[in-house]
Amino acid sequence: MRTELLTTISFLFIFFSTINPIPHLPWLYLSLAIAAIAIPPLAKRHARRPNAGGGGGDGEMMNEMVKEGYELVGKFNLGDYYPRHMWGSGLLDFHGVGPRCQRLAARVREHFGRVMEERRKVMMREEGGEVMEKRDDLLSYMLAMPEEERFDDYDVIAMLWEMIFRGTDVVAILLEWAMARMVLHPDIQSKIQQELDTVVGHRPMTDSDIPNLHFLHCVIKETLRVHPPGPLLSWARLAVHDTRVGKYLVPAGTTAMVNMWAISHDETIWGDPWVFRPERFMEEDINVFGSDLRLAPFGSGRRVCPGRMMGLSTAYLWFGRLLQEYKWLPTHPIKLTECLRLSMEMKKPLVCRAVHRNKIG
């Protein structure tokens, strides 16, 4: 899996050398995310984007499908508040959510179906004795299962889509926020690069370097604090009996959400909460995996995000490699306006310029 990820990073480095400024960085992060969850064919399809204007190609199609899915999940729908028999006919679907979901499902089945058929053809050629590139990923594993244990195509497509739809956005959004902060704070960017030069040297950064990159950890944690990708949606809880939270009565049956964004910007918890200052985590090491509720971006308790370890380690690796290889500079004024959909995104996507560090100076 890491080999595929590093291969995709190498592809992006070639891309950076040919197109500057870098257009709409989130689609690049999504390519990396797809590779990281061990579905390399989709990473290659997504990376196959023909021009900076965003026209055409499998990459643009994947980007559009994921974007449409996020919008539909976060969109207000009156029918959500009524029993299914009342809105199943479409009478209460004033926003057209149902037809849009059906069209998206058809596109997902068609797109992933093509990927599966291509992979089956490769596997058949391998069985015929032809030497092919080694395929050690989730899709190949599912297609190679014994017939009595094998999932049908609809189940495979559903699992692939779920991994991409909910397994990529948080990391991609976290990286976009972190890179925006690096462009806005060149002093912090330089400090990370100095740490990378000292700890890693001239070789490419790997997973084994992550524990030794302390300031890089602090920058990612501070990004999670200032810009939590999931400020509300992962913490819905139902009160099973009347309870009190501070001075408030929460009646039984109430659905409540923990506002992590409010906690991470609370002046009684964080000094200068509106200031981006990664050094605060050098002063006090705070666990972000749910044991310290001052900063729990992945949730806590029994419903904590199961992919939190992989997601964060992947973010460390990508972030480190992007900063190790390039200096990131502004091309337009960067606005940190937030937009809450399924996750909290940058309202205006990041566009910046990448300059190879060997050429600096």
UniProtKB/TrEMBL annotation:
Cofactor(s) for this UniProt protein: heme
Keywords for the protein's UniProt record, in alphabetical order: Heme, Iron, Membrane, Metal-binding, Monooxygenase, Oxidoreductase, Transmembrane, Transmembrane helix
TM segment ranges: none
Positions that bind heme: C305
Molecular-function GO term, any one: oxidoreductase activity, acting on paired donors, with incorporation or reduction of molecular oxygen
Domain of life: Eukaryota
InterPro entries linked: Cyt_P450, Cyt_P450_CS, Cyt_P450_E_grp-I, Cyt_P450_sf, Cytochrome_P450_78A
Membership in a protein family: Belongs to the cytochrome P450 family.
Matches recorded under PANTHER family: CYTOCHROME P450 78A7-RELATED, CYTOCHROME P450 FAMILY PROTEIN, EXPRESSED
UniProt-recorded name of the protein: Uncharacterized protein
Lineage: Eukaryota, Viridiplantae, Streptophyta, Embryophyta, Tracheophyta
